[in-house]
């Protein structure tokens, strides 16, 4: 990819009046055969061409509060082939926590509520089932533009996972950050 970028096609959710009656949804589980509604989704997408640029060599030029994202390199990147749930939690996540505390202003607390491996490999694509409780069960990369969490869901996650600290933490700024290798 050169500095001008590469044009790719992304899918974006398209508004439909159906969303006035029901929230957009997508289910990743098997429905009982007798369920009255057998739809797994009510999402409608449109394709748009966008330019994607490689920012790896310019990561320090981007700031979370200014651009909505930041790009940093870990001093030691884990071997992705050997990364499993155990060493993810013992080796990689502590490095991410140190990075967040050193690079993001005003961080009092870091909590990992979820982490996932993603892979576009044939073996991942051919899987028929997914165990959402097994964090090391690989997911396919998303094929549409999306937001992983809303402001309301951020508050709910704090209340759910950090109940004893929630009142204090919610007096300040709460952010959900996503990391990619």
Provide key terms for this protein:
181 residues, alpha+beta, two-stranded antiparallel ribbon
Describe the structure.
By secondary structure, the protein is an alpha+beta fold. A two-stranded antiparallel sheet has the order 1-2. The mean pLDDT is 86. It has helices at residues 64-67, 85-103, 122-125, 151-161, 166-169, and strands at 6-13, 45-52. Helix content is 23%, strand content 9%. The protein starts with 5 loop residues before the first strand and ends in a 12-residue tail after the last helix.
Itemize the secondary structure elements and their pairings.
Blueprint: E1 6-13, E2 45-52, H1 64-67, H2 85-103, H3 122-125, H4 151-161, H5 166-169
Antiparallel strand pairs: 1-2
Q: Please work out how many helical segments DSSP would assign.
A: 5
What is the percentage of strand-forming residues? 5-15%
- Contiguous runs where pLDDT drops below 50 for at least 5 residues: none
Q: Strand arrangement, largest sheet?
A: 1-2
| Gap between N and C termini | 18 Å
List SSEs in N-to-C order.
EEHHHHH
SS content category: alpha+beta
């Amino acid at each position: 990819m050169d500095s001008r970028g590469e044009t790719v096609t992304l899918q974006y959710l398209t508004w439909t009046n159906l969303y006035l009656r029901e929230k957009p949804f997508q289910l990743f589980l098997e429905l009982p055969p007798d369920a009255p509604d057998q739809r797994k989704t009510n999402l409608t997408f449109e394709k748009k061409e966008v330019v994607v640029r490689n920012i790896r060599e310019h990561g320090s030029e981007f700031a979370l509060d200014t651009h909505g994202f930041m790009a940093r390199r870990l001093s030691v990147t884990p071997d992705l082939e050997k990364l499993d749930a155990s060493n993810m939690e013992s080796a990689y996540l502590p490095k991410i926590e140190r990075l967040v505390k050193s690079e993001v202003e005003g961080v009092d607390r870091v909590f990992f509520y979820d982490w996932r491996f993603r892979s576009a490999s044939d073996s991942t694509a051919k899987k028929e089932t997914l165990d959402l409780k097994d964090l090391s069960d690989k997911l396919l990369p998303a094929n549409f533009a999306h937001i992983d969490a809303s402001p309301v869901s951020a508050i709910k996650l704090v209340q759910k996972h950090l109940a004893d600290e929630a009142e204090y933490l919610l007096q300040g700024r709460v952010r959900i950050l996503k990391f990619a290798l």
